[in-house]
């Protein structure tokens, strides 16, 4: 909860959800490690933002979070460039695939079904039921909960929800991996001080729970909703994105950052330069391309990326149209909130 405004839905869900996730992992044997992380200021002008993050963390109830000197920071991460740092002992890493697989196992154990590769094509609402037509048949229920991520706005529109002033924008996050012989450069987690004018955390280094070090991600506009590759393109989805007035307003405000992220997507040298702010000794030869993910970011008509959870409720429909980070950390807490909303309607 160090990045989130104290008292906000995100901060509260992050704190409660993290505690619930740790209990869940212990109960179900999900691999995880509370290893802590350093947030590194590499320039003098980043100190005020570091102070703000520290204050947020303290107001959100984190204990043990503190400023550390360059010498102490290098005891934890010997290869970093640092003028001052923040130590956050609560941060951890996890096998999130195992979390998702455990969720599915528990859902099925309670008599429910999970269908994948199943596209919703239309939604029919009646007084006391909702029917979802899909490519694998139709499903009828008393309540529909839409958590469709990259397509949540489209599914919400199928339910009759007015989402004309919101559009889901896909931002790809690409990673490199440190080659095995260079993994000694990172012990655990190394993060930069985030740019307050840019709604993403910036490239960082992450030790993975089953070994290996990831470096990234960037934040580049994807040219289709499921644009996991630099070369993925869907004309209809791309023009839908750039045709949205909110995207055009955001582009006017953030075009310089956007071009930098796009350049880093296609230029390994540019990506490496961003990583060298944290570890100067990293070179292009030390890195190989890793995987990528796509963030589903809700943008409003004024060009602002929503920083909060967006949940729209109707008689027998609950549309979750924005669940940004820390949605994975907070998934149990968010799930409980949504489940309570559904129970109130039954």
Task: Describe this protein's structure.
- It is a single chain.
- A hairpin with a 2-residue loop joins strand 7 (130-134) and strand 8.
- The chain has 9 helices and 17 strands.
- It has helices at 9-28, 47-59, 70-76, 96-109, 152-158, 235-243, 245-266, 268-276, 331-343; strands spanning 32-33, 37-41, 66-68, 84-88, 93-94, 120-125, 130-134, 137-141, 144-146, 166-178, 189-192, 204-207, 213-216, 220-221, 287-300, 310-313, 317-322.
- The strands form 4 sheets. Strands 2, 3, 4, 10, 11, 12, 13, 14 and 15 form a 9-stranded mixed beta sheet that branches.
- Helix 1 packs across helix 9 (331-343) and helix 7 (245-266) packs across helix 8 (268-276).
- With 346 residues, it is an alpha+beta fold.
Record the SSE blueprint.
Blueprint: H1 9-28, E1 32-33, E2 37-41, H2 47-59, E3 66-68, H3 70-76, E4 84-88, E5 93-94, H4 96-109, E6 120-125, E7 130-134, E8 137-141, E9 144-146, H5 152-158, E10 166-178, E11 189-192, E12 204-207, E13 213-216, E14 220-221, H6 235-243, H7 245-266, H8 268-276, E15 287-300, E16 310-313, E17 317-322, H9 331-343
Parallel strand pairs: 2-11, 9-17
Antiparallel strand pairs: 1-5, 2-4, 3-4, 6-7, 7-8, 10-13, 10-14, 10-15, 11-12, 12-13, 16-17
Outline:
It is built from 9 helices and 17 strands.
What is the tally of helical segments?
A: 9
Query: What share of the residues does DSSP label as strand, in percent?
Result: 25-35%
Main sheet properties: 9 strands, mixed
Q: Count of DSSP E strands?
A: 17
User: What is Rg?
Assistant: 21 Å
């Amino acid at each position: 909860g160090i990045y989130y405004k104290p008292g906000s839905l995100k901060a509260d869900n992050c704190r409660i959800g993290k505690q619930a996730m740790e209990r869940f992992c212990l109960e179900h044997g999900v691999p995880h490690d509370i290893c802590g992380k350093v947030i590194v200021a590499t320039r003098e002008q980043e100190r005020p933002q570091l102070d703000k993050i520290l204050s947020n963390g303290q107001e959100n109830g984190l204990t043990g979070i503190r400023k550390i000197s360059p010498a102490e920071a290098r005891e934890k991460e010997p290869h970093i460039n640092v003028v001052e740092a923040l130590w956050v002992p609560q941060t951890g890493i996890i096998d999130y695939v195992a979390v998702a697989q455990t969720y599915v196992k528990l859902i099925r154990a309670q008599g429910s079904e999970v269908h994948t590769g199943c596209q919703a094509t239309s939604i029919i609402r009646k007084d006391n039921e909702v029917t979802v037509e899909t490519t694998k048949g139709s499903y009828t229920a008393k309540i529909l909960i839409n958590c469709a991520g990259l397509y949540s706005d489209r599914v919400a529109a199928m339910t009759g929800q007015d989402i004309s002033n919101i559009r889901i924008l896909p931002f790809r996050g690409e990673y490199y991996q440190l080659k095995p012989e260079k993994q000694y450069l990172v012990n655990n987690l190394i993060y930069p001080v985030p740019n307050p004018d840019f709604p993403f955390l910036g490239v960082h280094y992450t030790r993975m729970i089953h070994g290996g070090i990831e470096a990234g991600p960037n934040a580049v506009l994807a040219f289709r909703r499921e644009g996991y590759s630099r070369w993925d393109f869907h004309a209809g989805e791309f023009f839908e994105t750039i045709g949205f007035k909110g995207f055009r307003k955001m582009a006017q405000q953030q075009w310089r950052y956007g071009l930098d992220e796009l350049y880093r997507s296609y230029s390994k040298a540019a990506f490496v330069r961003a990583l060298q702010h944290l570890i100067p000794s990293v070179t292009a030869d030390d890195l190989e391309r890793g995987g990528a993910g796509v963030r589903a970011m809700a943008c409003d008509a004024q060009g602002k990326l929503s920083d909060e959870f967006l949940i729209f409720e109707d008689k027998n429909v609950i549309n979750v149209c924005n669940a940004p980070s820390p949605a994975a950390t907070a998934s149990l807490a968010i799930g409980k909130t949504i489940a309570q909303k559904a129970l109130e309607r039954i």
